[in-house]
TrEMBL record:
It comes from Aquilegia coerulea (Rocky mountain columbine). It is found in: Membrane. It is a multi-pass membrane protein. Keywords: Membrane, Transmembrane, Transmembrane helix, Transport. PANTHER family: EQUILIBRATIVE NUCLEOSIDE TRANSPORTER, EQUILIBRATIVE NUCLEOTIDE TRANSPORTER 2. The chain crosses the membrane at residues 18-36, 56-74, 86-106, 112-132. The keyword Kinase does not apply. InterPro entries: Eqnu_transpt. This is Uncharacterized protein. It comes from the Eukaryota. Belongs to the SLC29A/ENT transporter (TC 2.A.57) family. GO terms for molecular function: nucleoside transmembrane transporter activity. One of its GO terms (cellular component) is plasma membrane.
């Protein structure tokens, strides 16, 4: 792609499309972890029916996200943004892995301690999200504006992925209900 400069010369940008794909992948990686946690709430509801996981996990997530974001915004002049982004993405990975290992280690059995572990993972998602959201927008703002736009597209794309997953669950449920009603008649 050729970009005009102030002195009527053009500069060729190499790798811009690849960088835009990387920005989109980083954005999806940021939101996909929490979206998968929200998608698994039906599973958590069957494991922990008396603990109200659909409400509690969000209520645990928000204070940690807002508190971490406030601390990071207050100390933004002293923070290395790239390290902040790496810490956030590593925390997303570790939290997602923790939820999987916790479920496998307990063989899918509920209990208060397992639920507290899932709440701990939800809080870690909040801390990771606060690290990544502001840090990525800040870093990408120093680059081309298209990078910020592509990174923001992750909100739309992960919403579409979750909606497609919910739609497939709805269709599967609808098909199984219609088959059951035919077998009863």
């Amino acid at each position: 792609m050729l970009i005009p400069e102030e002195n009527d010369t053009t500069v060729e940008l190499k790798g811009k499309n690849a960088a835009m794909v990387v920005c989109w992948l980083l954005g999806v990686g940021c939101l996909l972890a929490w979206s998968s946690m929200l998608t698994a709430e039906d599973y958590f509801l069957t494991l922990y029916p008396t603990y109200h996981p659909t409400r509690v996990l969000t209520l645990v997530y928000q204070p940690f996200a807002l508190g971490t974001l406030a601390i990071l915004a207050y100390n933004e002049a002293n923070i290395n943004t790239r390290r902040r982004n790496l810490i956030g993405y590593i925390a997303f990975f570790i939290s997602s892995l923790f939820v999987l290992v916790l479920d496998l280690a307990t063989s899918g059995k509920g209990g208060i301690w397992t639920f507290i572990g899932v709440c701990f993972a939800s809080a870690a998602f909040g801390v990771a999200d606060a690290h990544v959201q502001g840090g990525m927008v800040g870093d990408l703002s120093f680059m081309r504006p298209e990078f910020v736009q592509v990174w923001i597209l992750h909100i739309i794309s992960t919403g579409d992925l979750v909606a497609a997953d919910l739609e497939s669950d709805y269709c599967t449920c609808k098909i199984s209900v219609s088959l059951e009603s035919r077998s009863l008649s």
